[in-house]
Amino acid sequence: MSGPRLPKWRDPDPRTPEPGAAEPRAPGLRGATRVLFERELSLAWGGGGGPLLACGFFACLTAILPLAAGGDLKTLSPVAAGVAWLALALSSLLSLERLFERDLEDGGLDLLAIGHLPLESVFVIKALGQWVATGLPLALTAPVAALALGQPVHLAPLTALAALIGGLGFAFTGALGAALALGARRGGLLIAVVVLPLFIPPVVFGSGALDRAAAGLSPLPALALLGAYALFAAVIAPFAGAAAIRNAQG
Amino acid sequence: MIHVVSATALSLSRGERVLFTGLDFSLRAGEAVALTGANGAGKTSLLRAVAGLIRPNAGEIAFHDGDYNRLDPHEARGREIHLLGHLDGLKGSRTAREELAFQCDWLGHTQDGVDDAIEVFGLKPLLDLEVRKLSAGQRRRLALGRLIGSPRALWLLDEPLGPLDAKWRAVFAQAMTRHLAADGLILAAVHDALPIPTRALDLGGLT
């Protein structure tokens, strides 16, 4: 910003700030991105360990299915990919409710809104933080869960990769749902109702990729569609999400 | 840097209820305005409208620099405004050090801004504590720290003195005097008078 700067606190007389080049305003835009991202990760992992909860929920769901449907591999392995993806989608919902809500409740969103970065960027950073904090651990849990359901071992890396790409889509559409539900009573339930229909494409493409690979076909077409979904969500969701946040603040 | 903030024919409402209409005021560099009014008269809403968080029904809020050129409101709000209310955005699960550093980093700070904030508000013994373990007054001092840690021209304060004891009120008064002397601007919603010379702006309102 042009014009004189505020003098520093220690300047002897505020009316005559030190001459010379204006001091750089650390940390600037990139610095602000970094500090917010780090804060998001520390909030996700600190105090309660949300990602661990999501992974535990994921593991429990996939462990209960064989008990409910019978432990026969012949019945389980055809549905392994589909069930693993369904469980993944449900687990991704768990920590969404607190994503913006806690910042709205304690005034954090006001602080974020008066920073240099527009709310769209805040949304992207928070969604990426959600992906890294929750999507990544879930992607690492996914192959284990799928194995337990009788999926062949050689599909494990593909399962993790698909879960990682799908997780990006889940994070952005999920964050959009969280932003839309801001300030609503029973926000958690509302998020699930808003977001689960949007989770259908990645579930279809993701389990499709695994089914194709299991049948000996190339999983690439399905993976490409999954990636396209994730990128589409990453482009559209920030604008809609930032508008929803402004609406909730106003 | 912001030198003048002015509102013309401003009208605000919350939900269905109109808070005030046709409000005009201006605030110049080096000046503090104490915003008074009954509970629910719209003091906090006015502060939030100046910060750009609430869209006014009518009228506008403009920011001008020293030569009375209009500033882009987005730019001015993103770089030159502090908004500090009773909701301070501090996270209970993080330490005071982390939160102070985050708030100052996020708002942009000078090299030694954070150290100055720690010194002025006596935050050193609190830094390693989790924010949820702080008392209300300590928590407020931590939140006030960002005013000094990140130099921004316009301070929008909502009941800033509330939980502070006499000693820290005096310290904060000194900080405000200092800020005004450096051509800063202060708009504060208060019930008790601020310990510095102020101009009054009364919203009147409900009883």
In short:
Chain A is mainly α and 250 residues long. Chain A is built from ten helices and no strands. The longest helix of chain A has 30 residues, at 119-148.
Describe this structure in words.
The complex is a heterodimer of chains A (250) and B (207). With 250 residues, chain A is mainly α. The longest helix of chain A has 30 residues. Chain A is 73% helix and 0% strand. Chain A has one domain. Chain A starts with 27 loop residues before the first helix and ends with a helix. Chain A is built from ten helices and no strands. In chain B, 32% of the residues lie in helices and 26% in strands. Chain B has one domain: P-loop containing nucleotide triphosphate hydrolases (Rossmann fold, 3-Layer(aba) Sandwich), CATH 3.40.50. By secondary structure, chain B is of the alpha/beta class. Chains A and B meet through helix 1, helix 4 and helix 5 of A and helix 2, strand 5, helix 3 and helix 4 of B.
SSE order of chain A: HHHHHHHHHH
Order of helices and strands of chain B: EEEHEHEHHHEHEE
The coarse overall form of chain B would be globular
What is the C-level CATH assignment of chain B?
Alpha Beta
Task: Indicate the percent of residues in helices of chain B.
Answer: 25-40%
Q: Mean pLDDT score of chain A, rounded?
A: 84
Number of strands of chain B: 8
Number of contiguous helices of chain B: 6
CATH superfamily of chain B: P-loop containing nucleotide triphosphate hydrolases
User: How does the helix and strand content of chain A classify structurally?
Assistant: mainly alpha
* Count of DSSP strands of chain A: 0
Termini separation of chain A: 27 Å
